[in-house]
């Protein structure tokens, strides 16, 4: 688990940001492309499988156009 300078775990922060960013992208693009999810995975330092897992779990998110 990553920690910030104050020793506070940051993994939860990235995971909380994940759902918000996925929702924003869904609203903007209409679906979540593999390229978007890969970039998000990299920028949040979260495994791609976790990003895809969240994207495919929620019915209000779509991985298909």
Q: What letter string, H or E per element, gives the SSE order?
A: HHH
Mean pLDDT: 85
Unreliable residue runs: none
Give the biggest beta sheet.
Answer: none
Number of helical runs? 3
Helix content: 55-70%
- Number-wise, the strands total 0
- The Rg value, from CA coordinates, equals 12 Å
Q: Span from first to last CA?
A: 34 Å
> Which of globular, elongated, flat, extended, rod-shaped describes the shape?
globular
Detailed description of the structure:
Helices cover 62% and strands 0% of the residues. It is mainly alpha-helical and 65 residues long. Helix 1 packs antiparallel against helix 2 (34-44) and helix 2 (34-44) crosses helix 3 (48-57). The radius of gyration is 12 Å and the shape is globular. The mean pLDDT is 85.
Summarize the structure.
By secondary structure, the protein is mainly alpha-helical. It has 3 helices and no strands.
Features:
single chain, mainly alpha, 0% strand, 65 residues
Task: Tell me the layout of helices and strands.
Blueprint: H1 11-29, H2 34-44, H3 48-57
């Amino acid at each position: 688990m990553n920690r910030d300078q104050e020793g506070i775990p940051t993994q939860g922060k990235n995971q909380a940001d994940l759902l918000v960013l996925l929702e924003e992208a869904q609203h903007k693009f209409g679906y979540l492309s593999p390229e978007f999810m890969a970039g998000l995975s990299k920028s949040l330092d979260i495994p791609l499988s976790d990003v895809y897992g969240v994207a495919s779990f929620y019915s209000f998110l779509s991985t298909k156009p």
